[in-house]
Amino acid sequence: MGLFRLARWIHRKRLCILCYHGLAVDGESRFRPKLFMEPTTFASRLASLKRAGIPVLPLGEAAKLLYAGRLPDNAVVITIDDGFYSTYGSAAPALRAHGFPATVYMTTYYALKGTPIYRLFVHYAFWATRSRHLQLSEVAQNLDGDVDLTEVAARDRAIARLVEYGEVRGVEEQEAIAERLGKALEVDYSAVKSKRSLSLMTPSEIRSLREYGIDVQLHTHRHRLPMHRETVLKEIADNRDALAALTTGSLDHLCYPSGEWSSALWPWLHEANVATATTCDYGLNDASTPPLALNRFLDGENVSLIEFEAGICGFAGWLLTIKHWVRRTHSDSTQFTTRSGEP
Asked: Which of 59, 151, 265, 271 has a CA-to-CA distance to 51 between 20 and 30 Å?
């Protein structure tokens, strides 16, 4: 019907920033389809951009052109959060094959430690297990309780307790907990560690991204940005210090961890010399979009190709607007008939 073409023309001066996370190493897309995408799906996205002749720009250049009013029509930026090993192993070669630049927002704590992300492994182990019961004392001596793994609420409570228990401890103790949890749930922690499916890039791999035309930027050191000035400044400073030895570019672009943000953070981000910050809120960007609240389109394995195409041209935004209008109209209509006493 030509609606995508119409949307591209109407939104031609707006910037679409794509958001990816990890690519699957061993079927992790079934575990978290928003977090892990199959490499073949990612390659098909890049091929779609290439076929459409869409200009893919580096983040810093695109931001400057956007606010100067000189952005090329239908421009797109590719961003990848967290810095999973698969970014180096799969995404970087695919990007180079298509000649596309990208920005990796790199969190550094687990990259320097070289272990799987503790919180993520806990969630993965509960998802992957076929066990029906778990005795928490087998995993952590300060925890107790027999968990019925067939009950969703019980599983969620156990996950929350183990995450909270482990995240205040050092990496060595986290690994010991993860190994015991894997043994109890019959999920091989050593295999997950060996495959690096839940691990981040090493410093040498981060350093090599420049060879692929990939820019490395800030994502905080410990993947957190609480509403506390000193902690915000420390997270950014620690992240910047860790990355400074691994990249030659300036480190002045940030991605909010987990997409959680507030304008109350902006004075501290200015203090930390952050030029732009991206959210996980859907939308295209124009010159009126605050540089510290740039919108993105979160792509994933559970997003179809037609949904992807609708997202990058802005048509998905129209659908969301219509959806909200229908819901509001239905709600208003229901309230009216209730007040009037009609069925």
From this structure: 59
User: pTM (2 decimals)?
Assistant: 0.90
* Distance between CA atoms of residues 225 and 292, nearest Å: 14
pLDDT in tens, 88-108: 999 999 999 999 999 999 999
Q: Round the CA-based radius of gyration of the chain to a whole number and report it.
A: 22
- The single residue listed with the structure tokens 């019959």 is 186
The residue assigned the tokens 């509403």 is: 227
Phi/psi for 147 (5° steps) reads -95, 125
Written as six digits, the tokens of 68 are 């100067």
| Ranges of each domain in the chain | 3-113+200-319, 118-195
What is the Cα–Cα distance from 36 to 232, expressed in whole angstroms? 28
Supply 269's token pair.
């981000």
306 vs 237: CA distance, rounded Å: 40
Residues paired with residue 103 on neighbouring β-strands, in sequence order: 79, 215
Is 3.30.420.10 the CATH classification of the domain at 3-113+200-319? no
Tell which residue, 271, 279, 258, has the closest CA to residue 229: 271
Task: Report the 10 Å Cβ neighbour count for 340.
Answer: 7
